[in-house]
Amino acid sequence: MTYHQxxxxxxxxxxxxxxxxxxxxxxxxxxxxxxxxxxQPPSGxxxxxxxxxxxxxxxxxxTGSVVSINLDYQSISGxxxxxxxxxxxxxxxxxxxxxxxxxxxxxxxMSNLExxxxxxxxxxxxxxxxxxxxxxxxxxxxxxxxxxxxxQIPSYLIxxxxxxxxxxxxxxxxxxxxxxxxxxxxxxxLRLSYNNLTGPLPWxxxxxxxxxxxxxxxxxxxxxxxxxxxxxxxxxxxxxxxNAFTGPIPDLSKCVNLFDLQLGDNQLTGxxxxxxxxxxxxxxxxxxxxxxxxxxxxxxNKVKVILGDTNSFCKDxxxxxxxxxxxxxxxxxxxxxxxxxxxxxxxxxxxxNWAFITCDPQGKNVTTVNLGNQRFSGxxxxxxxxxxxxxxxxxxxNNLTGPxxxxxxxxxxxxVLDVSNNNLSPPLPSFxxxxxxxxxxxxxxxxxxxxxxxxxxxxxxxxxSSMSARMFVVVVIVVVIVVLVxxxxxxxxxxxxxxxxxGRAKSPEKIKSTQMLKTNEIMGTAIKIQVxxxxxNFFSEESVLGSGGYGVVYLGKLDNGTKVAVKKMxxxxxxxxxxxxxxxxxxxxxxxxxxxLVALVGYCINDHKMLLVYEYMxxxxxxxxxxxxxxxxxxxxxxxxxxxxxxDVARGIEYLHSLTHQSFIHRDIKSSNILLNDDIRAKVxxxxxxxxxxxxxxxxxxxxxxxxxxLAPEYATTGRVTxxxxxxxxxxxxxxxxxxxxxxxxxxxxxxxxxxxxxHKIIRKSHNLQKAIDPTxxxxxxxFESISKVAELAAHCTTNKYYxxxxxxxxxxxxxxxxxxxxxxxxxxxxxKFGGFDLNMSLPLVFDDSSIESLSFTNAQHRLNQSAQF
Length: 870
What we know:
Residues 3-25, 457-470, 498-523, 572-576 and 821-870 have low confidence and may be disordered. It contains 21 helices and 39 strands. By secondary structure, the chain is α/β, with parallel strands linked by helices.
């Protein structure tokens, strides 16, 4: 070794030693501050001794760095120093069962931290980003810290991919459950009881490997169905009691390890699945204080069962229900067991005061079921065929989907079947001549019959009037002859006029346009150009409603007084791109119908002009109300109006994505394509870029189209479009609704001009949402809570990873409670109205804390014993 090499070696050695000494010195300083911050020295701690010799403190022998601190149940109080984050080598910190208070220190960027036990203390607040950059975290427990200020489970927790245990019961958590728990491959224990979580269970949690799942006793209550737990096949313990869950209990036959199931104090409906009674390891189940129907379940002798007396089982003992009751409950099952039926369909005799049911004079057989105009969703169950005395079945004016069951044609006494104004699909079964069937207002059924691919059958007509088979055939023949004559006369007159104007040759563009329209089988109402010219005062400037890259929109008034919006495409749009979008919009709006989609009245093609005619939306676009309300003379939108608009739009997109016979992707959701009517209710417009969603793969490749600022990143870069493209754009609209800012505003500084980037920074880093809210809202505390939850939803919708965005069904469920007319009662109102009892609470919560211990199965000692296992 040369002299130079020896010097270099000694230099590096001294540098390493000095670094170790510095590290040791830093840890000593932090431990001294920890010692000074607590009320009394723990047993075996002395400031005069090396901290690595203190009892329950472990250090790395080679470096002297602290790797573990355990002060469990030492009865110590005081506060923790903010410098704890400087213990760079710390792997385990356990402070459970003490009286520590004040703000928690940040544990950000402690890359070696694996275990963090903070439960059963009196901490008051959690700093922003306190678990950011902790990738090796395996166990986190902050349960039983009821003094904490409200906080939400942070989205950055997804970086801690080694998480195995997350316990945060009675820890003041608010907001929705994040949609990322399937990202933790080793997560087994999730306990979030006694908080203020709201909204539905996220769909992604069904792909997790969670075994112990506690979400019970939320202050306001989680909502929606519990269907997702049927996919959580590793479950052993499920506590979901004392929430606001609805719908039926799902099939849990795949959850073979389940031994404890707590579902009491919810609003669950439906029949208890037989598979639940056969779970091999089930030991404990509670179903009290729900609205369950059907046969009383029969569990094995080893199972401790509590059913309570508020459920609506048909009999007080296990066994089958009356056949008529069984048939009606099967129909309710097709609707998802709505609560209105669960509350009234009680007992084992459908003729004993069951709502919507009429029986014969003897009170034995069901003769009429009248469920019209109830806003039910779902399908028509074939079980109706078991009601052999049924004469009248009214299911009109709902949102029923799927086909009409063929088995209904076998009902021997059926006289009236009214299924009008639903979304039923073909084919239309052939009923006997005596049956008066009404099916108008079912777009797909009507088109099937109109195009000859189906027929109302003998004795039925679309408008519900009864006629004999012979009369029906005669009428059809007469109508066909008249139509053919009219068409022939029209054709001869048209050809004569065209011959005079152009001779026998048509322009290439006209031939091309006509051929393209025929090829695509566009259905709709053709309107003459003269009608539209008259309606718009010859497309005068005074009639202009707005303009854009597509052309100009005019206000028109037809001869019958109906106001319409006429979109006149730009000249030259007959070329391929413009013609494709024109045809796409006509074809699409001819196939779908929904109250939250703008309706197409008709279209017009005249020479090089193409026009689309829509229903008129008197209050313009959402963009006008958010960004230009002063210019247009509007009042600023209230939060209730904004969240209702968001819900309307979400329902329209949900319909496109999953409720039509064919799923569609809009591709251009934005505030200027959301129109408002007199009641400030919203409809989605502009379907020129709509695409059919792929059936056999997760995406379809296409040219990028849409509006900058609303484009999902994966779509903008690859051209691959999925339904999550619309979800992203909708999330941007939510941000606009909350902030009153445009998706892209080039008049603002670079760091704030792009709304999504700025909004995510506000939500995830500064957590100062108040600064982002539109100043015209000036929210009170309750409104701010609502805005906060919608803001979190907006952030989820616009996450960069498309597969982490929620689907629109989830979005609709989250927004629904905020859009409905509700408000919390003030304490004095509760006393006045209910004598001091809040009827929305579950029974244990009505009493004080001392009473809860004796009433509740999940008392504090039981929870402590259970948590001691982990």
